[in-house]
Amino acid sequence: MRSALVVLVVLQSAVAAADDKTLFPHPEDTRWWLSAQLNVIAQAHPAFHSAYAGPNSLTARADSAVSVVGTVYTGYRVTDTTELLLDLESAAGGGIGQALGLAGFTNLDVVRNPTLGAAPYIARAEVRQIIPLSGASAPAERTWLGLAPRLPVRRLELRAGKLSTVDQFDTNGVGSDSHLQFMNWTIDNNGAYDYAADTRGYTLGASVEYDDERFAVRLGLMLMPTVANGIEYDFDLAHARGQNLEVEIRPIEKLTVRLLGYLNDANMGSYEEAIQAFRDGEDATPDITKHRARGRSKVGVGLNVEAEIAAGLRVFGRIGWNDGQNESFAYTEVDDTLELGGDYRNGIHQIGIAAVSNGLSDLHREYLRLGGNGFLLGDGGLSYGREWIAEAYWRAMVFRGVFLSLDVQVVANPGYNEDRGPIAVFGLRLHVDL
After folding, report:
1. d(CA 421, CA 80)
2. Residues forming beta bridges with residue 215, ordered by sequence position
3. What does pTM read for this prediction?
4. 41 CB contacts (<8 Å, ≥6 apart)?
5. Are 316 and 391 in contact (CB under 8 A)?
6. Is the torsion defined by CA of 183, 187, 189, 191 positive or negative?
7. pLDDT tens-digit profile of 61-91?
8. Residues 6+ apart with CB under 8 A from 315
9. What gap in Å lies between CA 240 and CA 230, rounded to an integer?
10. Which of 75, 78, 340, 347 has its CA at a distance of 20 to 30 angstroms from the CA of residue 390?
11. Domain ranges of the chain
12. 2-433 adopts what CATH topology?
């Protein structure tokens, strides 16, 4: 036992001395990029109190699940200002309760349509064009999202192709990465940001970004799915599109503030019409899918802040709101949210803790109270209360590019229902960066 501990200490000392966060080195002086990652998350929860359940309720009996996501990242710098990115991905396994019954679901890696299977698919296929607006440049970290080792201090960036909206909008250095940070949907992203995406979280679109030393502004136009949580894209841009605007301010070093606004148009259902049809006896239960119309809109705003307040210690927070008049369509069933958290890193170890409170609009909660179903929620009734979630994780790099994490999440009022829960969900994550 003692010898094993000595070996572990020596190994961790070697890891701590290494700068590389990947299993294999990635040279800085090439025009190409090739890397890969594997993310495995196992989660389980014990049985919890449930006065009743509906078709979209989280399983009240003890349950467990494992998800596996593997991605190959490739890229090539055609010129110093033009890059091509192509990523292939496979998502297998599933989430507890088939990823139903929680607005803030506990595993961001889960694909909500298990019938899609684990067959590889193109996650990203995009062009990045950099347009310098100044002669001055600054070092830039090469990643699978950007290959240039230096960038003009003042520039335009254009991206187009298949991409993820949240690769560019609502990003946060403390809470955006389910592979190395938090796992919950509404902690890694703004839950009220019903951003354009298919079932797997990707879309087709284009964006333009202006960057300066202390300021950035980005605009994006993305395709919406044809139906809520759908895999097919709606190409009728006259009536269906996701429009995004974000202003990023860096007033002082190590402080970033992002202001987000978005407007989605899609073939959405109306909560008010679904409720009225039920009350008039036209529908046996409220059914928002029967009351869809092209060109319906959803508007929302968000505030996103992150700051490093001491060496290795960072804090972050988000506030989000959308009008909640038409159905949740692409991300999750949240109409307003507030989250706070932070992380601390010391050598190869990192811990994080965060809490989020999610809420629904009056129409959305009434729809669920009367027995309606969304694409995630539907207990057959609702005793409304805000959904409260706390998450904490500990992560260690056990070898270069190999990370293990322990995670625990506690959810009060799952699916906004005071008649169910609370729930404790325990997680174990293996992440490998190649």
Report:
1. 54
2. 249
3. 0.92
4. 66, 67, 107, 109, 178, 183, 427, 428, 429
5. no
6. positive
7. 999 999 999 999 999 999 999 999 999 999 9
8. 174, 306, 307, 309, 340, 341, 342
9. 14
10. 347
11. 2-433
12. Porin (2.40.160)
